[in-house]
Design a protein that fits this description.
hydrolase activity; Metal-dependent hydrolase; globular; two-stranded antiparallel ribbon; YdjM-like
Length: 237
């Protein structure tokens, strides 16, 4: 799937699991998900849902932070055997989630930096990016990312769940690519068998543009009305 579809799927995925996670403990992580955590988790998942494509030179995430992400792309492409190989495996999702969770345990400041980077990736995937290397759009993206990151920080968002959110975002990416005809090698390096190969739609086809993307957008709107306590948010008259 295209970057915007992956980013949208990350938002939908997180919002969809909130009712099942809130107030529960999963893998030793307690989930107390207020409005701030819902917004933060949605954007973190949206950014994480683009991470597996860091193995592709032309992907959204590779071109988000210029030379930095392009260099990472080259490294990931070499380490994981090219596009849609190792970075599209369950092993990769676990590795990314574990590294992120370790980061959260090591330093709160490091987590805020990582959240900032993920939000920038998410906004770029959603269309608020530096298309055609436009300085203006890059500045707008950076300002929006900084403002949202700061707002989440000042609201006291608890990121103890961030490792699971990143792993989940990567997994959502795999599900999206399994719906396309190229499939993904989920069990790499044990096997290169591609789940979903030659079954789904073509990336950026009419199916994705006219069905998948609109459906994900509608799902976000519906889940927003379902999850947020709108009467409590409105000012009293």
């Amino acid at each position: 799937m295209m970057g915007h579809s992956h980013a949208l799927s990350g938002i939908v995925g997180w919002m969809a699991v909130v009712p099942f996670l809130d107030g529960r403990e999963v893998l030793g992580v307690s989930f107390d998900l207020g409005p701030g955590e819902i917004v933060a988790g949605s954007l973190v998942c949206a950014g994480a849902a683009l991470i597996p494509d860091l193995d592709a030179k032309s992907s959204t995430i590779t071109n988000t932070y210029g030379a930095f992400t392009r260099a990472l792309s080259g490294i990931f492409n070499w380490m994981f055997g090219g596009h849609r190989n190792g970075t599209h495996s369950l092993l990769f999702a676990v590795l990314m989630g574990s590294v992120t969770q370790g980061l959260a345990l090591w330093s709160e400041f490091a987590v805020q930096i990582f959240v900032f980077l993920l939000l920038g990736i998410a906004f770029n995937g959603l269309g608020l990016g530096s298309e055609k290397n436009s300085i203006a759009s890059a500045v707008i993206n950076a300002m929006a990312t900084g403002a949202v990151t700061l707002a989440l920080f000042t609201s006291g968002v608890d990121y103890s769940w961030i490792g699971l959110a990143v792993a989940f975002g990567c997994f959502l990416h795999f599900l999206g690519d399994m719906a396309t005809e190229l499939g993904v090698p989920l069990l790499w390096p044990a096997t290169k068998y591609r789940f979903g190969e030659k079954i789904g739609f073509t990336t950026d086809s009419k199916v994705e543009r006219n069905l998948v993307t609109p459906s994900l957008t509608i799902a976000i709107v519906l889940l927003t009305f379902y999850l947020f306590p709108w009467p409590e948010l409105l000012p009293e008259v």
